[in-house]
Automatic annotation (TrEMBL):
Residues 12-70, 72-129 form the CBS domain. The keyword Nucleotidyltransferase does not apply. PROSITE patterns: CBS. Keywords: CBS domain. Signal peptide: none annotated. The keyword Zinc-finger does not apply. This is CBS domain-containing protein. It comes from the Archaea. InterPro entries: CBS_dom, CBS_dom_sf, Diverse_CBS-Domain, ParB/Sulfiredoxin_sf, ParB_N. Pfam families: CBS (PF00571). It comes from Haloferax litoreum.
Length: 264
């Protein structure tokens, strides 16, 4: 599937918190304090038809006894579920909004589509090309046919094939994971072992955040077909049995850099 064909409903967030027009402003304040990821709340009627949006700016210096219907922003910009992600991203860019409600033809709220969702959709679309190149490399090297599936894998079971990661990139991947923007891992299932091929920074970030499972593209190689898998040999020679064996290279703290900085 090309990016032009990826639809909004594949990446929108559903189950969004809402309020009704009769909600008191003081109750909206309480809901916003709990951490609405959109800085506000869609306003819907009893049948979930979108009526407007109430954000922090709308209730600024408004008495708590006021009702939402008197302060909400009406006629918000919306997108349809069948709209392509690319076109929805254009709307976000042109309007300056960070997120848009998604409604059906009857105006019923289905979810929210954010600029983060747009970024995530593009990140995830880059992964299949990586998977294909990894698959072709393994099939060419070992003369076999490899099956690819998508499923969650246990972070604790991953055997790395890379000795070190960089500290600054690890921080970046940690941020992405916290915000739901990290692309899936690429792993090789080899008998009872799961070898990590692509995504070492993401996997270590997940370990840091106590995330137990991650989405992954899984390439299955049978030990009966391949007795000596090159990736397994790399891990063994590097003394890599788990993510705990991977070193974090924080080059910002490198002695040469410290010496250079102190000489200024």
């Amino acid at each position: 599937m090309e990016l032009d064909d990826v639809r909004v409903d594949a990446y929108m967030t559903t189950g969004v918190d809402t309020v009704c027009p009769e909600t008191w402003v003081t109750d909206v304040v309480d809901q916003l304090k709990t951490g609405s990821q959109y800085g506000g709340l869609p306003v819907v009627d009893g049948d979930d038809h979108l009526l407007g949006f109430v954000g922090a700016i709308d209730i600024l210096e408004v008495h708590g006894s006021e009702q939402v219907k008197s302060v909400m922003s009406r006629n918000p910009v919306v997108v349809r579920p069948e709209m392509t992600v690319k076109n929805a991203a254009r709307v976000i860019f042109r309007t300056g909004h960070q997120f848009l409600p998604v409604v059906d033809d009857d105006g019923v709220l289905l979810g929210m589509f954010s600029n983060g969702d747009a970024v995530r959709s593009q990140i995830e679309r880059t992964t299949p090309s990586k998977v294909q190149s990894t698959r072709e490399m393994l099939e060419r090297t070992h003369g076999i046919s490899i099956r690819v599936t998508e499923r969650d894998v246990a972070v604790s079971s991953l055997i790395p094939t890379q000795r070190e990661v960089h500290g600054d990139e690890l921080e970046g991947r940690t941020y992405e994971l916290k915000n739901g923007l990290a692309e899936p891992l690429i792993v090789v299932s080899y008998g009872s072992e799961t070898l990590l091929v692509d995504g070492h920074h993401r996997a270590l970030a997940a370990r840091r955040l106590d995330i137990e499972r991650m989405a992954a593209h899984v390439l299955t190689v049978s030990p009966e077909e391949v007795g000596q898998l090159g990736l397994r040999r790399i891990a063994r020679l590097g003394g890599l049995d788990s993510l705990a064996d991977v070193e974090v290279n924080d080059y910002v703290q490198h002695p040469l850099i410290e010496k250079t900085e102190s000489a200024r």
